Amino acid sequence: MLNFVSDVFRSDKEVVLVAVSQCGGALRYASDALRSDKEVVLEAVKQNGSALFDASRAVKNDREFMLEAVKINGYALQYVPAELKADGEVVLAAVKQHGYGLRFASVELKCDRSFVLKAIKQEGRAFFDASTGTLRKDSSKSFATWFENLLLCEGKPSEDFCSSSVVESVL
Asked: Which helix (H) or strand (E) holds 39?
């Protein structure tokens, strides 16, 4: 859409908002000023988390904005700066919105047993992106059973299934 229009329209906020609401990827063709406009970027992220890739550095470095963005589309965590991928609050917000968001977290968070337990309790599918060697106490039958049950419920376990006592007993 925006790739076929003149610079006048690429700089028109109203036109760009309509375009990114239909195709988040259209953000890449917006003017530099609008790729720095938080309203425009957020609208693009609502439609497609990957749109964050084309946002300005200033927007990406705004922690509060990034927190808001990953709450809307957890997949956007892939495109946040490294220091925010190491921010537990930002990562947990992404995981809550998109179960597999942990895969984009920093290695340190993926290896932090207590953090991963929080992520799994919040969203069972986070387990699949945790650092494997760090989490398992042993390869006990209880762990294998728990993991098999997690697969059977397609990563969306009940609240009891991921309760502190159950998770900690097998990890």
From this structure: helix 38-47
Tokens of 142: 């209880």
Cα separation, 21 vs 31, in Å, equals: 16
| This prediction's pTM | 0.74
pLDDT tens digits, one per residue of 68-102: 999 999 999 999 999 999 999 999 999 889 878 88
Tokens 């964050």: give the residue: 52
Asked if 46 and 26 touch (Cβ cutoff 8 Å), the reply is no
Report the first-to-last Cα separation within the chain, whole angstroms.
Answer: 49
Q: What is the pLDDT of residues 38-57, one digit of tens each?
A: 999 999 999 999 999 999 99
What is the Cα 5 distance to its own chain's centre? 32
Q: Are 66 and 89 in contact, with CB atoms under 8 Å apart? A: no
